[in-house]
Amino acid sequence: MAKIVTGIIIAAVIVIGALAIFNQSGTGGEVIKIGVIEPLTGDEASYGESETRAMQIAVDEINAAGGIGGKTVELIIEDGKCDPLSGGTAAQKLIAIDGVKIIVGGACVGETIAAAAVTEPAKVILISPSASSPKVSTIGDFVFRTYPSDALAGRIAAKYSYGELKAKKAALLTELTDYAKGLREVYREAFKEFGGTIVEDQTYTTGDTDFRTQVLKIKAAKPDVIYIVPQTNTPGLAIVKQLRENNVKAQIVTAEVLLDRQVAKENAAALEGVIGVEPAIDWEGNPKAEAFREAHRAKFDGADPGAFAANSYDAVYLIKEAIEATGVEAIDTIKMRDWLYGVKDWAGAVGSFTFDENGDPVMGENVRKIVDGEVTDLGPYAP
User: Fold this and answer.
1) DSSP letters along 293-362, please?
2) What are phi and psi of 137, to 5 degrees?
3) Which domains are delineated in the chain?
4) What is the pTM of this model?
5) What SS3 state is found at 103?
6) pLDDT single digits (tens) 16-34
7) Which one of 33, 37, 84, 288 is CB 3.0 to 4.6 Å from 105, fit for a cystine?
8) Mean confidence (pLDDT) of the chain
């Protein structure tokens, strides 16, 4: 049975590859279709909502300004559910049925890696706005991301913990997902490299809601800092609340998930003082960031966008420039790929970045702190 299933998958990839190669000679009509793979259902749906909102703002702006070479841009959105099976299935549908040559997604690591297994042989461009695992760096020549690798963010969090917070003992509490495990491994090794000691290393399974066992073990270890990495803000909030309820006083350091502006505002008391790391977006000094934030506020009842949204917005504009530079009439993804690898000091809402040899952006990271429900800036910090 396994061989039959494998054969079907291989056949599907071959067919998709053939369709993509055939389509490369076409003009694409008067509409430029961009595929989107995002979690629209499940616990990670908040990511999908945030990122697709940002992409739609970019598309609306581009179309209002005349489109790309006079052609209207259209998003075709599929539910990747933040899991590999759905991510791969979504990519197959977008390529074979919708005929897209460019896909933005996925939001999560698993769906991105699975999608890449389909897009890579089909020579379809895949740009993720938020899959940050180091694993994404080497999954294909047609794969890019506007969000930096966790290899940078995890190291910055460890260095800040040891250097600025003067923490000598750290405890870890991370979800068993590719994203969280990637950050955990980087932080753990870097913290030890700087001279610190890992006194407790706890994990939990996606869907868990009771973290008392892990919390009590961490409390008994008496760490100076606790590095928590949830896949989504729901378990992250529960962990922080249970740490507070059990009177754990150690400084909480986290990744970008709990720095979501709306989450911080709605959970101000619980998240007070939490420190995290995310791309160094200058919301006040970067005209593109300011314009995007104002457009987001105007469309979504005053809500501020976060880093994932800004990276999604930038992904669409990056695609626009790539198409304009390599040909609007007949989209050539090989030329687009080569153009993207040549991107240097590209200025977007997230600031300026350059693609390295893996299609990863070389860009700054900022340390942030939640104070009174607001995500405040503690400044850029080198790894």
Assistant:
1) HHHHHHHTTTPPP-HHHHHHHHHHHHHHHHHHHH-SSS--HHHHHHHHHT--SEEETTEEEEE-TTS-EE
2) -60, -30
3) 2-128+286-363 (3.40.50.2300), 151-279+366-380 (3.40.50.2300)
4) 0.80
5) strand
6) 444 444 443 333 468 999 9
7) 37
8) 91
